[in-house]
């Protein structure tokens, strides 16, 4: 992110500290390459200054220094020094590739924004920038590490920006960058980004809370010191080697707790906690037992992230104890290796050159998440939709559930059985029909809880339901469902389009098989479409008129006024899927006189002839089409009926029995509120085969003595 301003004379900060830091872990030839990148960047940014008045090169140097703290390799450090060169100067990606190598150029490209491309809105531009960055990150995780270091330095120096820009950047950091840092296990950066965002978004709240924490630190110093000494003594008595340190919660973390639980600051006792670091896993559990003997644990406040690590690889035992004077005390217990991962996350791969299984596990989990980004991208319609899916997956709260084989799976809080099914495998998600949670059959929309054993029941011919989109929470599930529905609609629209085109060609006294390849090729060139199926899908979705396409294929002129009325009828079978929809306002069923309305992008919407909505498009012949029912429809159709009945015991059971006897199914039922009358009104949504079937159901219901009136309701 650039903070370039007009030139102001100021002293250029030296990069000696950076070179000194690099010499602690890089070879001399690598340091020479980094120094060369520094000289190149300094020359490219010559004459450019930041909003604060410092020479612009001070920013890339600061970003590189942050990465050097993680011991990143020379390629990443060179890319950090050059990360704004392509964006803010005349230097090209190709020049960087020639001078510093292709990997460095790819890293720079992944971090650079897409300022050269015109976007419809700021939202689209921002979403496309994130999409590009996240996909580059999926190929090489160093891209996001450079970007996070870049964002961290910009947040540290955000005071030079105007208030509006400060607020926008801080909000973006809180919504995207801080959660990504958390997802990658970079705890230190995550906390600092949240606190800096909080400081710029709510400066007054930040100031008041910071002052309160400072005061509390003084007031509680004696208690904290007493507890720390007691913990050390107890562990020593148990012959456990441990390092005990106090830790203070981040301000934004305290603020979130106050907001989420509607607490005042004086009610938040656990602003100060303790960390116990030991040599191995058995010592973690021994320490836990020793501390539970020292202070009583608070029920329900123990979490074992060692046996069940967080999705970002974090491991620790968390327990909350009743301390002296009834003050709750939070304690984290972990090994030295776990502490490395907790502090540096995915960056621990570079920071600690180790073969520890914990570090490898972090890399593996990060790799799985990055691969899921590529999967979501391949099925998202555009960058805004992609970003929407990713934001969902960045929520930090998680639930841990078990597969029937005992494998642990982490999902966002609020995840349902459908989210779990897609997390197992796309095919399992697409074909799920039911779920057993802890051996009990429950609805697919059931929210999962920690420790649930989840078993998905699938069926070979099942397919995703559009209603799932209302309650799934993971980006993977949402993108797969949307992709499947789009693909299904495309196939169904192409099939309908083929029937519409056949009908239009017959009106011109031609058949589809009479159209030669040359005419099809000419049409594809003129329309810019890639295949015949795309043409058919456009016709089926109402994006192109069938008669116009037919005339283009037959190389005839423009259609004459009223020519649409010469076309035959399209037969409605009821099994066309999303390409043919039935209007909610009149709920047509076989036997009703019907008319089709071509709705652009959605296909055909079928109304009854007497539907009030029809009058809106009757005058425009290009928008409607003659349709008729197939004599042999193989589908049940929804229809609403209203009954006025005597308010007597058992009447609903009698009505339900008659409906079932007549071969119909009740989809929904509701009753109007009781008003003390002798009669009440019941509304049913029934499923019937056709108008004759409905008439049969209504005749059966009229035989019931308590039924006073029965009517079909449209709309």
TrEMBL record:
GO CC annotations on file: plasma membrane
Recorded GO MF terms: GTP diphosphokinase activity; guanosine-3',5'-bis(diphosphate) 3'-diphosphatase activity; kinase activity
Domain ACT residue range list: 640-715
Residues of the HD domain: 56-155
GO BP: guanosine tetraphosphate metabolic process; nucleobase-containing small molecule interconversion; response to starvation
PANTHER family recorded: BIFUNCTIONAL (P)PPGPP SYNTHASE_HYDROLASE SPOT, GUANOSINE-3',5'-BIS DIPHOSPHATE 3'-PYROPHOSPHOHYDROLASE
Family: Belongs to the relA/spoT family.
Protein name according to UniProt: GTP pyrophosphokinase
Lineage: Bacteria, Pseudomonadati, Pseudomonadota, Betaproteobacteria, Nitrosomonadales
